[in-house]
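Exercise 4. Each item below gives a protein and its sequence. For each, produce the structure-token representation.

Item: Cytochrome b561 and DOMON domain-containing protein (Gossypium raimondii).
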Amino acid sequence: MLRFKMSPSSAAAFLRFTFWTLLISPAVSLTCSTQKFNKNQVFSTCIDLPSLSSYLHFTYDSPIATLSVAFVATPPKSGGWIAWAINPKATGMVGSQALVAYKNSTTGVPVVRTYDISSYSSIVPKDLSFAVWDKTAESRSDGSLVIFAKIKVTADLAASGKINQVWQAGPGVGDGGMLVKHEFAAANLQSKGTLDLKNGHTSGSSGGDTTIKKKNIHGILNGVSWGILFPLGAMIARYIRAFESADPAWFYLHMLCQISGYAIGVGGWGTGLKLGSESPGIMYSGHRNIGIALFVLATVQIFALFLRPKKDHKYRFYWNIYHHGVGYAVLVLGILNVFKGFDILNPDRKWKLAYMIIIIALGAISFLLEAITWVVVLKGKSGKSNKPYDGCNNGQGGRQTLAT
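Answer:
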């Protein structure tokens, strides 16, 4: 076996080199200024884009209105895609003219395709509204892809010196170049802004933040209403009413929870409709259909309170069946849809965990109250069966039947 000897000074030098390499290497990967390309292309400006760990290198030739770009990003999955786009008239994805890169599924060689994204429902390769040439792509050892292209900037954009840029990354590519939808997390929604061609900087757009705020409001309203208030109201109606001393307080508490839950739920339902109208290409069918069913059932349930027969009415039995059936349907669908909302919104894990703790606590309380109320009801029935008559008739000890 060969053995190598190293002097103390050499060992110290090696350790220092290793330490500084480990210290500097993360920083190198996090800035565009240190990035190199396979063919050593050089650009006058580079920008660390504010989301999706993406980078833009570009050179703008003002006299001939030509923009040379190199866009660097990493697909979320192997076989995924990256995209950089210009939107000539708006700030979002719809209407953007996109350059998309992904690895060919057969050869594994990265390719670039152009997409005219007129709507979310139709995202297929198509020529752009402006001239683009020298389109190439390369893959990097860190798993990222690079899009290279030269773009003819239109006269109106050249006059302003600014363009609306959009960038994105998605998980895969289907048949015919159909792009698999990207995620709708905060980073994906914030991946847009204005690029100043002359001064070489970019400004972010607040549209993503606004959408996230609306989603959070939608989630909070529906979580509180369908996910907490309606189950709490159902618990009050089932368990508290078993105690005679709680009558009629249980009924008013039940009404308060259900009407408050309905009012808050309508607000959450309205924000959901607003989000849907602002994102025509984004469809969560299951969540949406359950939300519509909840709104209809809860509306019918609330209006049924005004048609509530008296206790001795011949139709009260059927009304009770309907009221309980619809109520439990709202209860189950509401909790189910809250969890579907968590999967869509994908908040910090602590929020889903907190809601699960609340539901488990309500379930445990229900289990305990179920046992207690059965004891109360059975004792009440036992007391009545052991009392064959009610008092005496003129002190003669004769039986007097109970009034019903």
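Check: The mean pLDDT is 79.
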